[in-house]
Amino acid sequence: MDRFQLFPVQASTLAPEVDHLLYFLLAVAVFFTLLIFGAIFYFAIRYRRRSENELPHVQHTGYTLEILWSVIPFGLTMVMFTWGASIYFTASKPPNNAIQIYAVGKQWMWKLEHAEGQREINELHIPIGTPVRLTMASEDVIHSFFVPAFRTKQDVVPGRYSTTWFTATKPGKYHLFCAEYCGTNHSGMGGWVYVMEPMDYQNWLSGGAVEGSMAESGKKLFEQLACNNCHKDDNSGRGPILVGLFGKQVQLAGGGSVKADEAYFRESILQPQAKIVYGFEPVMPTFQGLVTEEQLVQLVEYVKSLGPKPGTGPVDNGQKPVPEKSSTAGSTPANR
Amino acid sequence: MITAAAQERENYLNASHGLKSWFLTKDHKRIGLLYLATITLFFFIGGAFATLIRVELLTPQGNLVSSETYNKLFTMHGVMMIFFFLIPSIPAVLGNFFLPIMIGARDLAFPKLNLLSWYLLVVGGMFSLYAMLAGGVDTGWTFYTPYSTTYSNGYVIATALGIFIAGFSSILTGLNFIVTIHRMRAPGMTWFRMPLFVWAHYATSLIQVLGTPVLAVTIVLLFLERVFHLGIFDPARGGDPVLFQHLFWFYSHPAVYIMVLPAMGVVSEVISTFSRKAIFGYGFVAFSSVSIAVLGFLVWGHHLFVSGQSLFAGMVFSFLSYFVAIPSAIKVFNWTATLYKGSISFQTPMLYALGFIGLFTMGGLTGLFVAALGIDMHVTDTYFVVAHFHYIMVGGAIMGYMSGLHYWWPKMTGRMYPEAWARLSALVIFLGFNLTFFPQFILGYLGMPRRYHLYPPEFQVLNVLSTAGASVLAVGYLMPMIYFIWSLRYGKVAPVNPWGATGLEWKTSSPPPVHNFDETPVVTHDAYDYASLMAEEVEVG
Ligand code: HEM
Ligand SMILES: [Cu+2]
Ligand SMILES: [Cu+2]
Question: What is the ipTM of this complex?
Answer without folding.
Answer: 0.92
